[in-house]
Write a structure and sequence with these properties.
The protein is α+β, with helices and mostly antiparallel strands. It has seven helices and seven strands.
């Protein structure tokens, strides 16, 4: 597959001539030092499979309780949205809004946009609004914070374990696997998708 002749740095918009790289070599921007592209095998099928699996796990994780707590014979279950709504009811509305955005809406939007881009590319055509979708994905990446939620849940579980019996729910395992898949998804080079789109449009 032929690469695009030019590469534009997504951080400072500097334009560089794209040149072949040795295996494992990385091209960096001469102006700001950010990574432009690297020579590594890109598997579109693997990226699509991870995206679809992430969407399924996202649904599972949000439909089932994250933690199950038993205290003095009383049983309590909490999902992600239970925690968000509890934060809102406790008077910390801004925290609840940020949590809803970073833990639910942004990850869901990112995975949906990936599916919107990858499914047509896998079928051999470029979807309408490809450029807008790709730029939106790039801006969303730093704000998807499922892994931060996982750390917070584990810290809370350790603190609550002193006073109650804490059992991890299906939702917690779902978020754990989702964190791994989203981390894998973040390792893929988005520039490769631009190259695939450019090749299909020729």
């Amino acid at each position: 597959m032929a690469a695009a002749p030019l590469s534009i740095c997504e951080h400072c918009d500097a334009v560089h001539e794209r040149r072949p790289l040795a295996p494992g070599q990385v091209a960096c921007c001469r102006r700001c030092g950010a990574e432009l592209y690297r020579n590594r095998r890109f598997d579109l099928d693997a990226m699509l499979a991870i995206t679809l699996a992430s969407l399924i796990l996202f649904i599972v994780a949000n439909l089932h309780p994250v933690l199950i707590m038993q205290l003095a014979g009383a049983r309590s279950e909490a999902t992600l949205w239970d925690a968000i709504l509890a934060s809102y009811d406790a008077g910390v509305g801004p925290v609840a809004v940020v949590a809803a955005a970073c833990l639910f809406f942004l990850p869901l939007s990112q995975m949906t946009l990936f599916a919107y881009v990858l499914l047509p590319l896998r079928a051999g055509w470029v979807p309408q609004g490809f450029g807008t979708a790709m730029h939106t994905i790039r801006h969303m990446r730093p704000w998807s914070m499922v892994e931060v939620f996982m750390v917070g849940v584990l810290v809370s579980a350790v603190k609550l374990a002193a006073d109650a019996e804490i059992t991890p729910g299906i939702g917690l395992w779902g978020f754990a696997l989702l964190t791994i898949l989203l981390t894998l998804l973040a390792t893929f080079d988005l520039h490769e998708l631009w190259d695939i789109a450019a090749e299909l449009q020729r």
